[in-house]
């Protein structure tokens, strides 16, 4: 099973971006979301940002992930 994760764009350099979730940062490709801006939330899958998300939707999804983490 694959899970696409919402992450926040911290920095953009060309067609690469640095994204973060909590304390985790990773570099991803931005080729599929050419209009993305720093501060936007994106869905990340397999090393690529695949969709820009509304901030409210992203934060709701992250809250659900946090709830699932607390169930363990």
Provide a short characterization of the protein structure.
With 72 residues, this protein is an alpha+beta fold.
Topology readout:
Blueprint (H helix, E strand, L loop, with lengths): L4 E9 L2 E6 L2 E6 L11 E5 L2 E6 L1 H17 L1
Antiparallel strand pairs: 1-2, 1-4, 2-3, 4-5
Give a description of the structure.
The chain is of the alpha+beta class and 72 residues long. The chain has one domain: SH3 type barrels. The chain has one helix and five strands; from the N terminus they run βββββα. The chain has one helix spanning 55-71; strands at 5-13, 16-21, 24-29, 41-45, 48-53. It has a five-stranded antiparallel β-sheet, covered by helices on one side. Strand 1 (5-13) and strand 2 form a beta hairpin.
């Amino acid at each position: 099973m694959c899970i696409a994760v919402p992450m926040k764009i911290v920095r953009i350099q060309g067609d690469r971006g640095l994204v973060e979730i909590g304390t985790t940062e990773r570099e991803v490709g931005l080729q599929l979301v050419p209009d993305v801006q720093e501060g936007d939330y994106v869905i990340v899958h397999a090393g690529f940002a695949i969709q820009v998300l509304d901030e409210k939707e992203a934060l709701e999804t992250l809250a659900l992930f946090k709830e699932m983490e607390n169930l363990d």
